[in-house]
Amino acid sequence: MAGGLAVLLVALLVLPAPLHAAPEREPLTLEALQARAAAPASPNGSATIDLQAFAIDLRAENAEFRDRFYRILQQALARSPVPLGLDLRQSVIQGQLNLAKLGIAPDAETLALTEAERAKLERLRAAEEGTAEAAPQASQERSVALLRGPLDLSEAELQGPVEGNGMLFLQPIRALGTAFAGTVNWSRAHFGGELDFSRASFGETATFAHSTFFASATFRRADFQGNAHFAQAFFHQGASMAHADFGGVADWTQVRWYGQADLAQTNWQDRVLFAKGRFLDEVTLAEATFEGPVTFRGARFNAPVALQGVSLFAQLDFSNAVFARGTYLNVANLAFDANKTRILGDPGAIGRAISVPTLQGNESVLRNLVFNFRSLEQVQDANWLEYQTQRLRLAQIAERWAGTPLAQRWHWKRVREAVQWLGLSVLLLLSQYGTNVGLVVSVGILGAAYFAVLFWFLDRWRRRRPAAILPGRQETACMALSFGLVSALSLLALVRSAEQPVLTLACLGAMVLPVPLLLVARLYRQGRYHDMLDVTYLVEDGSARQLRLLVVRLPIIPKFYFYRDHFTPIRCDRRWGWLNYYDFSFNNLLKLGFNDIRLRDQHLPGTVSALVWYQWGLGSLYIGLLIWTLSRTIPGLNLLLYLG
Length: 644
Known about the structure:
The protein is an alpha/beta fold.
């Protein structure tokens, strides 16, 4: 028994005390308070009333001490010829701490301030007036009281409410690791110095509404267990809330951020309101977690918003948000369930604001976003994201190809990738991957007009000698003017709808220029000496004149002789005869026309036949592209195609 007691005694002497055991605080007496107020310490070169590590009782049952506490400190702070700080580090304060009773009354400000303090106060008021001009909702109320010196509440424990409503703080406030057990009211306050609430905990509602932060504000790793109200606050130098936890409703409505808003790795457990906010610098929400709905309705962003690695468990709303030019939402590695979570925004705007740097690691993100907007029937946004996905895929293929050694580029896998890159490039340039009907139509009309002029030239410009077979001047003028008008309108539509109009025109030119021009050059170099040289190559079925789709129609009449009775040569001697060439070209390329116009099957140069078949083949590909694009841009067909 004696041996066991000895071992226990040794253990108690050797083992350290518990790490979180709070040391005993010495109760603050009036004598100690008066002595410390009369003889401020200067630990860092600035005069400070040192009240750290005290137990301060400001409860109602200790009213006499409370009243004298405020009176002694207020007189010491007000009468000091230099700014006097207040050090309450590691203190335990019971009852309400009313900071307004420690400040200078507004009518006595100019009597106690130094020249440097007056200059700083004027700068703050000038900045506040500028803020009020930019934001009419800014508060114009004068401060209730002014605290001249710095305030240090680091590692203090405030067991009651803290009241700082309407105060003006000229110097920094430090509250590192401070525990605020009661409500905190700093609404309509003006903070002229740096504010640091790192690792602070707020047990109940914390209110900073209508407050102005002229210097940087730091709430890193702060714990807001109750609601947090920052509505209509102004952050002139930005704020850092990184790693902070918000357990209740976080109200940031109409907040203006003139500096960077660092909200990275924050945890939001309830509703978050950023509605009508103004973000004039970068916003960082990287790796944040939102368990409740988030709204940025009516917000304005003048700089990029970082949403990398954000975890969403409820709705994210960007409705009526305004994104300045060059502003985007970086959603790389965004995690959310597309079946349960909704990302809202204005149709046609939110999709263009979303961006990811690379495709690798973000394919599922883009897929979920596309599903999100398709389920909301915001087809334009879904299609835009799919277009951006394929652009990233194209860049990925090109980067992989460029990194392949020259000796391995002709391996069948690399050749397949090259073919994939080429096909994807064509789809992106001519249709934005099936998402832009206007671009597809403008490309088709431009190509059809070009082939119409080409066919007219081949058919009407036969030879100059010995007997000229040429079109008339009026017909030539009509063809030139019509082609110029159609081309100009098509080019205008193409430039307005294409992301890269020059490359789109180059892609179209690569399809319609080399082969047709080579065939035309070959034909005129060889000459034409066949029978029926003075008869047009085009014939039409005159049995019906109506607008019809001719998807399965072939460009040459059937071989059976009795079909020739149905097809007669087109009338080239009429003033409107040149329109037949547009009709024929539209038949081949767009599969749409008024008349069934085809090539004759007798005395036809092979070069002319090859050219017509070439256009017909391009038309088959084009009509497939057009139908695919229409199916992706019509909401019902688009959703059906996606779900299928």
